[in-house]
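Write out the 3D structure for:
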Amino acid sequence: MPIKILKTKRDYQQSLERFEDIFQAKAGTAESDEADVLALLIKDYEDRHYIIDAPNPIEAIKYRMEQQGLTNKDLAQILGFKSRVSDIFKNNRKLNLGMIRKLYNALHIPLETLVKEY
């Protein structure tokens, strides 16, 4: 398969099919090198055509809490007050800079997600 920038959906599909065929090629072989290049081309195409918006801050917090098995009580310990957690989840209170810093440090949620409007 000729290696080229993926411009069409057909190029993308053909590259995926070829990548599946050579995915487990032995390291150091020509097929392994081709798979490495195809992976980069496929990622580039997907980044340009399948854009996924970042979640709003509340969704991100809930998702990270679920991932880490945290409860509202655990989040209250991070933020300082149980009432703040309830207010934030009910959209009665917005995140302030101090809360954003605490959430970033404790839950490792990207800052660009935490500062988004919601």
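The mean pLDDT is 94.
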